[in-house]
Each structure stands twice: as C-alpha cells, then as structure tokens.
Design goal:
The chain folds into three domains: 287 residues, no CATH class; 113 residues, no CATH class; 59 residues, Arc Repressor Mutant, subunit A (Orthogonal Bundle), CATH 1.10.10. The protein is of the alpha+beta class and 485 residues long. The strands form four sheets. A nine-stranded mixed sheet has the order 2-6-7-10-1-11-12-13-14. Helix content is 39%, strand content 20%. Bound molecules: zinc ion.
Length: 485
C-alpha cells in the first residue's frame, strides 16, 4: 500500500532459568562416598559411583530432606510419591552410561519466587546425581591438550535442579532471580551457592518474540556463566544477537551456546537434544519413594529464617532502613554477625554503619571473608560502645579497626596498649591548642581577618599533636574561644 510505514519491530525478551544447586550432604546421593571437595582425584569413589555392574544404589535420606526443605522455601508442593529415572547418554565422565535423575515425578513442583514485584513460577525441582569431571591435560588449556583424564570424585554428588517457567522478561530480573535463589539455599544451609566453584550452576533459556505475541520464539540455552554479572551480560548479548538475526530475516536455531567471559559473546556448542533422546525410564534398582505429610511437616517446622523474613525482622526489631537491612541480608555472614553483635550493644545503626562501611571495605581490599578474620561480634559491639561513651573518638576507632580484625584483641585492651584513650582533660587540651596558635601565627592572623575556613586546619593540628586522642568536641569549643583572642 502506498505510504505504508515500516516500523522497527519491538521485541519482548522471554527467559527461563535452570539452576543446579549442589546439596551439602556429607555423602553422595546413592553411595557412602564423601563429597569433600579438593581431595586427590578419584579418591572419593566406590563401585557404585564408578558405575560397576551388579551394584545397588541406596538413596541418601539427607539429600531428600534438603530437597524438600528447598522446595518448601520456594513455595513448592511436595510430591507424595516421587521416583528416580535413568537418563541415558554417553559421555566419558559418566561411566554408567546413564544419570539417575527424576523425570515425571519430581520431589517438588509448582512453586514461585517474587522478583521485582512479579511472581516467577517454578515448574519443578528434582534430585539428580552429578557427573564426573574431565581434566584436559598435556598442554595449556583445552585447545592444545594432548589427552583427557577422568576424575570421578564429583560423580554421584547430589544436585537439586530448579526449573523456572519462562516468566522473566529482562536480564536484570533473571540475575535477581538467581541471586535470590542463591541466598535462599545459603540461608537454608543446603548449598554453598558458589558460582565460581560450580556448586551452583545457572543455565538460561532465552528467546524473543514480537511485543504482544502469545507464542514463544525459538530459544537458545546459555551455559558457562560463572558469576551473576555474567548471567546478565550473557542474556543481554544473546537478546541482541537474536534481534539482529530476526530483523535481518534469518532464524534463531535451537541450540546450546557457551558464554565466553573474555570476549563477551556466546558461541554455538551443540544442537539441543529433545527430551525423548534420553530414553528416560524408571530406575529398577530404586523403589518409588513415599513422602508422608508428617515428614514434610517436621521439615517445615525446622526451617531456618529466610532472607525475606530477616529483611522484615531487621527493620521491625532494630529500626534499620530497608536499604541497610537489605545489605545485611544480602551477605548472610554480615547478617549473622549483626545478630550476634546486637546482644552486646543497642547502637544498631552504628553497628550497621561499621559493617557496611569500614569492615566491608577492609574485607574487599584484603580479599577476605568475614569468617576468615578474627573480628568477633562482641569486640565490634564493644568498640561501638566506647565511641558512644566518648572513651574513644570515631577516628581512633577507625585507626584500631585493622588490629581488631587481624588480632582479635579486645578494643579496650588495644586502646590501652597504644595509649589511644580519648582525652577530655580541658587543661591539657587547652595547652595543646595554645601551642598550635603560637606555632601558626600567620594562619591565626588570616583567620582573625575573616578566613573562617581555616578553623578546620587548627582543629586538625591539635588532633595531630594529640595523636588523635583529644576529644574533638572539647577541641572545637576551646579552639573557638582561644581564636576569638
Ligand atoms: Zn561411591
């Protein structure tokens, strides 16, 4: 038609996440081998997890309880009967030739998480065993390696795979969903949630469709994102790539794509198998598992505090702002530390400021976690009390903080050792002030002729001369009087 305008198509992003969390059990999912990380290759193996013929798997009760606990925290229904299925595929890190997973009766189903004010539905969460690991050896990296070695320590370690519905509409929402999930499993104590070490692995199914369309576009599956930031970046890249393809009249191919952190791009890995390729069937060695409502109820009763509950409690009980509370909730150690410290002081805001400010900065600069230091909640609370009661200035507190963190010495001892107790003795401070005035005649003259800004300079000189111990309030007052002349 003449005069018709071609307008740029607007697309909507559709994202679903599949998250594997490694459950923190002592032993593997179907044998008594240890799950300990970082031991010698193939040390944690036995005929069962090596996939020898004629052996029988025995289900780990703790893994099932962790799965149920996570499911309850994700608002899921818990199956009354669940079962285990064999997922057949061949790969050198899978000696059995199949992985024991759950196909049509997962332990958890139909939950949700609320992210950015929107319910993200969770389709299912099921238990499965991890595969082993290939170590590409001989030369530097995969490309130049001459051979591969198999390490089966990880084979049989329990995983919970949490599958969302394609309900997310932005990369930011997907990142927040993954972060929220990580926090929940860490609060539950069922998983470390460490993306870099692989104890939590996130895969994103990403597609785009014209805005307003009801049908989904062809999706690609993104893998190999080792941080929350890279989840967001990989999705952004993929959305741009798909948009360009479709706008230029091409088609998106359904496939798995690997995120490359160095280049900031995704690359095709293999075309995605359909579910039936795996030829799932019930594992004949494992009976279906009945889960009684009483068992679920016992697990529900023992549920620890979740991030959202702590967020509300910190605001209600201690009057923290939503922002402060969210920082303490975000990093569980920080919140745990706060909860212990408030037993020793009621200066909640000051405590929070120290934790969010100087302490977080110290940890960042020194690449440490809070639990790797010798700082105790009691010592921090004590220091806050000393500042509040004017025993030390906050400048002194800042000065002794590294020692408090590194040595674990109580703050009152530290201050005594270093002779840093705050001095409020007026005659002594007056003496120092007078000394500073005598030594800085030029500045005094300038101040008296109207250069008021110099006042800070005089106070600074007094603080320096007293090695920071002079009570700043007293210094301010006396200095002002003396400078009047
Ligand atoms: Zn084993």
């Amino acid at each position: 038609m003449a005069g018709a305008l071609t307008t740029q198509t607007q697309y909507e992003t559709v994202i679903g996440l599949e998250v594997h969390v490694q459950l923190k059990t002592q032993t593997k999912l179907f044998c008594a081998c240890s799950t300990q990380f970082g031991v010698e290759q193939n040390q944690n193996t036995c005929p069962i997890c090596l996939g020898m013929p004629g052996v029988l798997p025995v289900l780990n009760r703790q893994a099932v309880e962790y799965g149920i606990l996570a499911g309850l925290a994700l608002n899921c229904g818990i199956a009354l009967i669940t079962k285990f299925d064999r997922k057949q595929y061949f790969y050198p890190d899978l000696p059995k030739g199949y992985q024991i997973s759950q196909y049509d009766l997962p332990v958890c189903h139909d939950g949700y998480l609320e992210i950015m004010g929107q319910k993200i539905r969770i389709l299912r969460a099921h238990l499965e065993e991890d595969a082993g690991k290939l170590v590409h050896a001989g030369a530097a990296g995969l490309a130049g390696s001459t051979h591969s070695l198999v390490d089966l320590n990880r084979a049989g370690v329990p995983l919970l795979e949490i599958v969302s519905q394609p309900d997310m509409r932005s990369s930011e929402q997907a990142r927040l969903y993954a972060e929220t999930l990580r926090n929940i499993v860490r609060y539950l104590g069922v998983c470390d949630g460490n993306l870099e070490e692989g104890s939590m692995r996130v895969e994103a199914n990403v597609s785009i469709r014209p805005l307003g369309s009801e049908t989904y576009g062809t999706k690609t599956e993104l893998k190999n994102m080792n941080s929350f930031r890279s989840i967001q970046k990989a999705i952004d890249y993929e959305v741009a790539r798909q948009t360009e393809l479709i706008d230029s009249g091409e088609r998106v191919i359904q496939e798995s794509r690997l995120w490359n952190e160095a280049t900031g791009t995704t690359a095709s890995m293999r075309s995605k198998e359909e579910a039936h390729d795996y030829r799932y069937f019930p594992d004949p060695d494992l009976r279906p598992l009945e889960i009684s409502p009483e068992w679920v109820e016992r697990i529900r009763q023992a549920m620890p505090e979740l991030p959202l509950q702590r967020l509300n409690r910190l605001q209600e009980e201690f009057g923290l702002s939503e922002y402060d509370a969210s920082v303490l909730v975000e990093l569980k150690e920080l919140g745990d530390f706060f909860d212990e410290a408030v037993e020793h002081t009621s200066h909640y805001k000051a405590l929070t400021n120290w934790l969010m400010g100087d302490i977080t900065a110290y940890l960042k600069n020194n690449h440490k976690n809070l639990e790797d230091t010798r700082l105790t909640p009691k010592n921090l609370a004590l220091m806050v009390q000393m500042v509040d009661s004017n025993q030390i200035s906050s400048a002194i507190a800042k000065k002794i903080l590294p020692d408090l963190i590194e040595t674990g010495t109580a703050p009152d001892m530290l201050v005594k050792e270093k002779g840093l107790i705050q001095n409020s003795d007026e005659s002594q401070i007056q003496q120092i002030c007078q000394q500073v005035i005598v030594e800085n005649a030029e500045e005094v003259a300038a101040f008296r002729s109207g250069k008021e800004k110099l006042f800070g300079f005089f106070v600074g000189q007094v603080m320096k001369a007293s090695r920071g111990t002079a009570n700043p309030e007293v210094v301010n007052r006396l200095m002002r009087e003396l400078l009047k002349g």
